[in-house]
Amino acid sequence: KKNPRYAEFRPGEPYFDEFREVVVPDTAATQAAFISGQTQTLATPTPELLAQVKKAKPDSNLYTWVDSNWQHIRPSVEYAPFKDVRVRKAIQLSIDYAQIMDGFFGAGWGYQAALSPGYPEGWKPEKVKSLPGYNPDTKAKDREEAGKLLDAAGFPNGKGLDFEIIFQNPSDVNKENATRFQSQISAALPEIKFRLRPYPDSASFSTPQAEGKFQILAYTITAAPDAVIEFTSQYHSKGSRNYGKFNEPALDALMDKAIVELNNDARTKMLDEAQQKFMDEWMPMYVLYAQPVKNMIQGNVGGYDTTAGIAYGYGANTKVCRWYYVDK
């Protein structure tokens, strides 16, 4: 509810006397609530849903951006085959990233490698798209190279690789990513044995993830506010989100140095080195893409543009004080 002293530091805000988030039991009911005008915002991630809402609510406005959430497939390096970087790299080269992204979201996503493109130090989508594995124009060549790496590692055509991928079943995007990933890898490496294992909810999935008791998983990460903190949390041997138990002393040393570096140019150089080695030498996980946001907003709500965008992360949920009614 509106605090009477709020205007002391942001004059005129908030514009609403009250803001409420309501729990709607299922996807269809959520969409119906927006179309009938009972709610003011609706996430429309897929092309089919977006077209449906545009048709039903032609006066609503669409806001899109690439945000700080990123999707990934994470192997556990405690699973014997994934201890070999040749196996991890072969799988990375075999993924058709654009097919996975287009299959669920359609347009709007961004290519991402080790770090979110939202960081000043992060590689931008154009650069990532040019890399082996990510580049759609070299996919046949990359998959040929993947076969050579697996042969050298003792897994010809994936023979001897046997693992399952876990994910949260209620999450449509994690489910879609896991399913498409399984389909692609099974087709590219016909001797592999690859199973899907959905977990019924976030709580049941979080336990094996946190304990590192999995072979490979599909999940979503929200980027930390700082690139060094992000890289450390995900890939440092003591990182809080290093669920795959990746352990590389050279990476640890580089991040331990970067975290205390105050010169921006020197820090950026370290992060560029880390991103290059991530791709060429380490390959601790498979970052699929930076996630697009596609939110429909009722036509009588203004100010949403001041809260949307990657710089705000979840600002569209936490800075609603900046919204206002165009008419009421």
Characterization of the model:
The protein is an alpha/beta fold and 328 residues long. The chain has helices spanning 27-35, 47-56, 85-94, 97-105, 125-129, 139-153, 172-188, 202-211, 227-235, 249-258, 264-282, 315-318; strands at 41-43, 61-75, 162-168, 193-199, 216-222, 286-297, 301-302, 324-325. It is globular.
Beta-strand share of residues? 15-25%
Query: How far apart are the termini?
Result: 18 Å
How many DSSP E strands?
8
Number of helices: 12
Keywords for this entry:
17% strand; two-stranded antiparallel sheet; 328 residues; alpha/beta; 8 strands
What is the topology?
Layout: H1 27-35, E1 41-43, H2 47-56, E2 61-75, H3 85-94, H4 97-105, H5 125-129, H6 139-153, E3 162-168, H7 172-188, E4 193-199, H8 202-211, E5 216-222, H9 227-235, H10 249-258, H11 264-282, E6 286-297, E7 301-302, H12 315-318, E8 324-325
Parallel strand pairs: 3-4, 3-5
Antiparallel strand pairs: 1-6, 2-5, 2-6, 7-8
Helix pairs in contact: 3-6, 4-7, 9-10, 10-11
